[in-house]
Amino acid sequence: MIDRSVTHATFTLERLYPVTAARVFAAWADPKAKARWFSTPDADHELDFRVGGREVNRSHPDSGLSMTFESLYRDIVPDERIVYTSMLHVGDDLATVSLTTVAFCPADGGTQLVLTEQGAFLDGREEPSWRKHGTGDWLDTLGVELGAGGYE
After folding, report:
1. For residue 73, what are the domain limits?
2. The domain that contains 100 carries what CATH number?
3. Residues 6+ apart with CB under 8 A from 60
4. Three-class DSSP category at 144
5. What share of the chain is helix, strand, coil (3-state, %, to 5)?
6. What whole-number distance in Å separates Cα of residue 79 and Cα of residue 74?
7. What are the 10-residue block averages of pLDDT along the chain, 152 residues in total?
8. Residue 152 belongs to some domain of the structure
9. How many degrees, rounded to 5, is the angle at CA 59 between CA 15 and CA 8?
10. CDD domains per the record (predicted)?
């Protein structure tokens, strides 16, 4: 029997990227760019970047359960803000439901990205610290992507 529980957690991550807000925003909006920094080569990634649009990232690990991360875009203000809700499924089980806000703020020498996520972590299937760490990793990979150029 599963021990039912809900852990609520909020975290904020910040990154400074030495490029314009338009360039950072474009790396979120372009399906090919987003797949490079957000997904993995062995996953299926779909992105319909518009209010009401959906993003799905399905992993297919060699061992263990598949993971499906699905988001619905609720608010998009170009070069300023993205708000989306998400669900993470591990196999067939719902692990997390969250609300994420990403703000793009002008800063000396570039753009300050501020990501705030509020989550309900269900039945011990995901820990808030795991999500925070993983989100930080892909924001770091976004920085690598932005350094590669191509989003002027």
Report:
1. 6-147
2. 3.30.530.20
3. 42, 43, 44, 66
4. helix
5. 25, 45, 30
6. 15
7. 88 96 96 93 93 94 84 98 97 95 94 97 92 94 80 42
8. no
9. 55
10. SRPBCC_CalC_Aha1-like_7 (cd08900)
Counting the structural domains of the chain, the total is: 1
Q: With the CA atoms of 151, 14, 34 and 132 taken in that order, what torsion angle do they form, in degrees rounded to the nearest 10? A: 170
In a domain, 1, yes or no: no
Q: Residues 30-37: contacts with CB within 8 Å, 24+ apart?
A: 30/151, 33/145, 33/150, 33/151, 36/145, 37/138, 37/141, 37/142, 37/144, 37/145
Quick one: which of 59, 129, 134, 52 has its CA closest to 85?
A: 52
Say what the pTM is: 0.91
